[in-house]
Design goal:
By secondary structure, the protein is mostly helical. The protein has a domain of 88 residues. It contains eleven helices and no strands. Helix 1 crosses helix 2 and helix 6 crosses helix 7. The chain is flat and about 75 Å long. The two termini are 16 Å apart.
Length: 203
Amino acid sequence: MDTIETTLLRALLNFLIIGSFAGLILGATLIFRPHWLKWASLICNRWIPTRPLDKILESTIKLDPWFHRYHRAVGAFILAGALYILYFFIVQIDKASAIVSMTNRFHLPPAYIAALSEQLILIELLGATFALIISLLMIFSPNLFRKFEHSANEWVSLRRALKPLETWHNGVDEFTFRHTQQMGVMLILGSVYLMVPLTFWAR
């Protein structure tokens, strides 16, 4: 197992152990001091409306007139960037040295790095080619984008999508506070069951 996998596995184990320890504390609190959690619930269960966020997301920002006014300058800028990317990934890049450098840095097999780099280079070339076509259309035929703009600039209201977020769900809290000792015992047993093997495994 390499260094990256070992570090990620140990971080996951530590996270689960800390979570189990927190479960022990929470379970003991439910058994011996349930009023503490009720007090904390009153503080944490604050109503946060989504309407202000909805208004911000639904505000209109019109950039189309600016792009049509300076379409040649914008197209030329995109064209220069696309040409530079094509030149860099076709002519200037040294694939062999890049693979060796990435292999030494990330400690991965060279074949894996080579396959990944080929896919990344292909994505960059396809993206640059698409940007090149878009830039030429913006310079010479900007009117072709108007039909696309009418369909893309369709108004989509988020009010219906955000409405379920404003529904009050307190069934879990009510059930927990009705059965505090049972829930506390279950939390302690589950935390111990998870913590003991993880502690020995993390050594």
